[in-house]
Automatic annotation (TrEMBL):
<keyword id="KW-0732">Signal</keyword>
<dbReference type="Pfam" id="PF00777">
    <property type="entry name" value="Glyco_transf_29"/>
</dbReference>
<keyword id="KW-1133">Transmembrane helix</keyword>
<keyword id="KW-0472">Membrane</keyword>
<keyword id="KW-0333">Golgi apparatus</keyword>
<keyword id="KW-0443">Lipid metabolism</keyword>
<dbReference type="InterPro" id="IPR001675">
    <property type="entry name" value="Glyco_trans_29"/>
</dbReference>
<protein>
    <recommendedName>
        <fullName>Lactosylceramide alpha-2,3-sialyltransferase</fullName>
        <ecNumber>2.4.3.9</ecNumber>
    </recommendedName>
</protein>
<keyword id="KW-0328">Glycosyltransferase</keyword>
<dbReference type="GO" id="GO:0047291">
    <property type="term" value="F:lactosylceramide alpha-2,3-sialyltransferase activity"/>
</dbReference>
<comment type="function">
    <text>Transfers the sialyl group (N-acetyl-alpha-neuraminyl or NeuAc) from CMP-NeuAc to the non-reducing terminal galactose (Gal) of glycosphingolipids forming gangliosides (important molecules involved in the regulation of multiple cellular processes, including cell proliferation and differentiation, apoptosis, embryogenesis, development, and oncogenesis).</text>
</comment>
<dbReference type="GO" id="GO:0000139">
    <property type="term" value="C:Golgi membrane"/>
</dbReference>
<keyword id="KW-0735">Signal-anchor</keyword>
<dbReference type="InterPro" id="IPR051142">
    <property type="entry name" value="Glycosyltransferase_29"/>
</dbReference>
<comment type="similarity">
    <text>Belongs to the glycosyltransferase 29 family.</text>
</comment>
<feature type="signal peptide">
    <location>
        <begin position="1"/>
        <end position="17"/>
    </location>
</feature>
<keyword id="KW-1015">Disulfide bond</keyword>
């Protein structure tokens, strides 16, 4: 009887129809963006007193060859630390990695974190995004036919196994893949990607959706995010409670990858801008991403991230001028209402 009930529910979900959301770009929004482009040079966003020593901060927040694991990173399990995984991490850090000339360049860095929000669609910000020194992209956000809106340069692509593109499309020769570890098997996966060994049969059981079998980058182009970045984002910036052990799942104290990437950018860069951030939950049929028709209400169905708390945090940063919001999805200072 239970099986029949489940099948009936699935059939009902498949036959459910909705009015398609009519997507359009606000012309005033787009015109004001055109007028503001010249004002963004130089950006008055996140700014340090002097230029950061880029190689040193990279080595602090993105793990490199032969770096010792700080003791505080062994206090918590993933995603807030490496508790119980010290041997795996040390084994991974023996793989060859190098600092490129582009990364080592001694200059103040203007960075943009490109989210995957539907607000990017139709704004034609691609050329402006490509003009930044460092372009950080998230998960499987595609380029291709979307380059007019999102650009075609990728300095850093941050992701975890299930979020990584199944088919690698970044053509930038300087691209770096930064792995974010949410669970122990993610370390095995990134090790397989670096060593070109693919995914083991046993590991497949621990992923909640299909993951790539390969990432066609040289081993020197991989990095491992220091989980302290994620922990600081959760506990210090968002003021979530300390992680606690649960039999299954997480409390809503795991930051989204977008806010984690913003935290990393603020540590690596002298000026930080955002594009493609912000969820319009009042328009639940609006597209969640710029590249598909998935509705925004999906974000209300997940239980890992506290979207409301993050939205308040981002709104405050943009309103106070700490970061710049190029697409106006967080706090639109150039919108009419």
């Amino acid at each position: 009887a239970l099986l029949v009930l489940v099948i009936s529910f699935l059939l009902l979900m498949q036959t459910r129809t909705e009015e398609p959301f009519q997507f359009h770009v606000n012309s005033a929004h787009k015109q004001v963006r055109e007028a503001q482009r010249s004002a963004l040079e130089p950006l008055q966003a996140f700014h340090h007193e002097s230029c950061l020593d880029f190689p040193s901060v990279l080595q602090k927040y993105l793990f490199y060859l032969d770096q010792p694991i700080p003791a505080q990173l062994l206090l918590y399990p993933p995603p807030f630390g490496f508790k119980g995984l010290k041997g795996k991490v040390e084994n991974l850090l023996t793989l060859p990695q190098s600092l490129s000339e582009q990364e080592a360049a001694g200059k103040c860095r203007r960075c943009v974190v490109v989210g995957n929000g539907g607000v990017l669609k139709g704004l034609e910000l691609g050329q402006q995004i490509d003009s930044f020194h460092t372009v950080i992209r998230l998960n499987s956000g595609p380029l291709g036919k979307h380059t007019g809106d999102v650009g075609n340069r990728t300095s850093i692509r941050m992701s975890y196994p299930e979020g990584t593109p199944l088919r690698w499309a970044d053509t930038d020769p300087h691209s770096v893949f930064v792995a974010v570890i949410y669970k122990g098997v993610d370390l095995s996966w990134i090790s397989g990607m670096i060593r070109k060994l693919g995914v083991t049969f046993w590991d497949w059981f621990f992923f909640w959706q299909r993951v790539p079998q390969e990432i066609p980058l040289d081993p020197s182009r991989f990095r491992l995010l220091n989980p302290d970045v994620l922990r600081q984002t959760a506990l210090d910036f968002l003021e979530y409670p300390k992680p606690r052990w649960r039999l299954w799942g997480w409390d809503q104290n795991v930051p989204t990858l977008g806010v984690t990437a913003l935290s990393l950018a603020s540590l690596l860069c002298d000026e930080v801008s955002l594009a493609g951030f912000g969820y319009n939950l009042s328009q639940q049929g609006a597209p969640l991403h710029y590249y598909d028709s998935l509705p925004t209400r999906v974000m209300q169905q997940q239980n890992m991230h506290n979207v409301d708390k993050e939205t308040q945090f981002l709104h405050r940063l943009v309103r106070e001028g700490v970061v710049s919001d190029l697409t106006g999805g967080i706090h639109c200072s150039f919108c009419s209402s």
